[in-house]
Design a protein that fits this description.
- The structure holds two protein chains of two kinds.
- By secondary structure, chain A is an alpha+beta fold.
- Chain A contains seven helices and ten strands.
- Chain A has a five-stranded antiparallel beta sheet. In chain A, strands 3-4-5 form a three-stranded antiparallel beta sheet, covered by helices on one side.
- Chain B folds into two domains: 77 residues, Methyltransferase, Methionine Synthase (B12-binding Domains), Chain A, domain 1, CATH 1.10.1240.10; 123 residues, Rossmann fold (3-Layer(aba) Sandwich).
- The radius of gyration of chain B is 18 Å and the shape is globular.
- In chain B, strand 4, helix 10 and strand 5 form a beta-alpha-beta unit.
- In chain B, helix 1 packs across helix 4.
- In chain B, 58% of the residues lie in helices and 10% in strands.
- Classes of the chains: A alpha+beta, B alpha/beta.
């Protein structure tokens, strides 16, 4: 099922954008806030985020999840968190082509500040779309607890397995295409898997589960922790 | 009479209009462009860079300062034609490596390098080893900057460095790498000349590598 959202459905706060831009608990100055305001107005008029979810029967064997005969080498971290899954949902969610068009236009100009803010806004849009997608799963399947969402590229699940993942979804789902390196376009898109089951692990997912030392999220977390400590 | 501290303040505050108007006034009063650059513009960028490193300024501040600096430098260029090296600290070829489409960090580095007086040739995203080598030759670049956001694409940087070796021009250029999953250790392992973890540090590294 594919759903198209409006920007306002995401209920994004400007504070969330400021945080994404690195402001922490501080507020940007008036000039930056004015640009954020303008971009919010543009996003409200233009941006149409989308998501798609599809349930699959499947099973886990060692560190591999098999859905409809397709194997996902998710690595042991994700496999252990999904070990009690009775079924799986594969998903894709995106800030959308409309978002990407504005991004491309800004990329071709020389206003790096506006591009930086639009990029931060795009990250928030993609994540918020993923959150709404998860809420949708809860509404559609209220009696079956679900895990957090897991994506190729994280926790040792190779990003190139997005090719296999998208092979199980409809062609051109949500307007997302993969490039030769299996990266999604529009760039502000997410994809992955959710496990459902009576005894599924519903613990909040975080960097503590992951063994990938080179992950940028772990780098940023450590950096923020060190800054807070000092 | 022009108030030269306005130029310094314009850069620190990221005020393009004030940077441009003060530079124009200074030129009308025949103030040596080199003094404007070394005593006010560069000092302003150093100050905002220091504030950023101390967590007292943010990426947008750096970008606004870089834009103000670039605006001032554009006005100074015609006056510096006989002293080219003062307005161009060096030529930089920059790109996100093949397979990777992430460009926001790379674009921040471009802005900062340009703002601080480097000439930047931005090759965009998904850049092959061949394209890096070709652009370096074509533009006679002093520095090559490579960016990657993914652990799966950052390994391609090693191939790019190898391509420079195979082309026989590895020793003619400094190679810098950056991107969220990278580290100093990784940069050393693949044979890069340096690594930086933010746009401000990238400028400092570029200057260090070229001794400018």
């Amino acid at each position: 099922m594919e759903r198209v959202l409006r920007f306002k459905d995401l209920n994004l706060s400007k504070k969330a954008i400021y945080t994404e831009m690195g402001y922490g608990n501080s507020l940007p100055d008036d000039r930056v806030r004015k640009i954020v305001d303008n971009l919010f107005a543009i996003a409200t008029n233009i941006v149409r985020p989308r998501f798609y979810v599809q349930p699959f029967d499947g099973f886990i064997s060692d560190d591999i999840i098999v859905c409809s005969g397709v194997s996902f080498h998710v690595n042991r971290t994700i496999a252990s968190l999904l070990k009690n899954a009775e079924m799986f949902i594969l998903f894709a969610a995106t800030a959308g082509r409309e978002y990407q068009q504005v991004h491309n236009k800004l990329s071709n100009g020389d206003d790096t500040l506006t591009l930086f803010i639009w990029d931060a806004l795009g990250s928030c849009i993609a994540e918020a779309t993923g959150d709404i997608m998860e809420q949708n799963v809860e509404t559609e399947l209220p009696d079956l607890p679900h895990s957090n969402r897991f994506s190729p590229g994280y926790c040792g699940w190779p990003v190139k397995e997005q090719i296999e993942l998208f092979s199980l979804l409809p062609p051109n789902v949500c307007g997302i295409k993969l490039n030769d390196s299996a990266l999604m376009y529009p760039i502000k898109s997410i994809s992955g898997i959710i496990g459902l089951g009576t005894h599924i692990d519903t613990h909040k997912y975080g960097c503590q589960f992951c063994e990938l030392d080179t992950c940028y999220k772990k780098h940023l977390k450590n950096k923020h922790y060190n800054e807070a400590e000092s | 009479m022009v108030k030269l501290t306005d130029l310094y303040n314009a850069i620190v505050d990221g005020n393009l209009e004030l940077a441009v108007s003060t530079t124009k006034e200074s030129l009308q009063e025949n103030i040596d462009p080199q003094i404007l650059i070394s005593d006010y513009l560069i000092k302003g960028m150093e100050e905002i860079g220091a504030r950023f490193e101390a967590g007292k300024a943010y990426v947008p501040n750096l970008l606004m300062s870089a834009r103000a600096m670039k605006g001032a430098l554009e006005l100074l260029k015609p006056y510096m034609e006989n002293n080219h090296e003062i307005v161009t600290l060096g030529k930089v070829v920059i790109g996100t490596v093949k397979g990777d489409l992430h460009d926001i960090g790379k674009n921040l580095v471009c802005s900062m390098l340009e703002g601080c007086g480097f000439e930047v040739i931005n090759l965009g995203v998904d850049v092959s080893d061949e394209k890096f080598v070709q652009a370096t030759r074509e533009y006679k670049a002093n520095i090559v900057c490579m960016s990657a956001l993914l652990t799966t694409t950052m390994v391609y940087m090693k191939e790019v460095i190898k391509a420079f070796e195979n082309a026989g021009i590895r020793n003619e250029v400094k190679i810098m790498v950056g991107g969220a999953p990278l580290s100093e250790k990784f940069a050393l392992e693949i044979g890069a000349d340096g690594y930086s973890d933010n746009a401000n540090a990238a400028v400092a590294l570029a200057r260090r590598l070229l001794n400018v």
